[in-house]
Amino acid sequence: MSTKEKIEDILRHALEAIEVKVEDESAFHVGHAGAASGGGHYRVTIVSPVFEGKSLVLRHRLVYEALAAEMKHTIHALALTTVAPSEQAQKVREP
Questions:
Q1: What is the mean pLDDT of the chain?
Q2: CB 45 within 8 Å of CB 83
Q3: How confident is the model over 5-17, as pLDDT tens digits?
Q4: What string of H, E and C letters represents the secondary structure of 35-93?
Q5: Which residue has the higher pLDDT, 3 or 51?
Q6: H or E segment and range at residue 78
Q7: Domain annotation for the chain: domains and CATH numbers
Q8: Residues with Cβ < 8 Å from 93, sequence gap 6 or more?
Q9: Which of 15, 18, 35, 38, by CA, is between 20 and 30 Å from 70?
């Protein structure tokens, strides 16, 4: 299982995610000090009912808690977009 697939799997289960999209952006950071240690750079979008009513900071904490083991070795950086289902529905309705 690739790191990308592992991230998707962990977040789907830990956060009861409806949607998880993981993009590996490690190639854009070649030569970066953090990349030298083997940790990758990922852009992650998560839609989860767990995020309903929670602040952005708390949402991000939940993601980092879920990925704590991966953050020690295989992930150097995350760019996060965390969305509650009600927010996703609003965006669809907006012109």
A1: 86
A2: yes
A3: 999 999 999 999 9
A4: HHCCCEEEEEEEECHHHCCCCHHHHHHHHHHHCHHHHCCCEEEEEEEEECHHHHHHHHH
A5: 51
A6: strand 75-83
A7: 3-93 (3.30.300.90)
A8: none
A9: 18
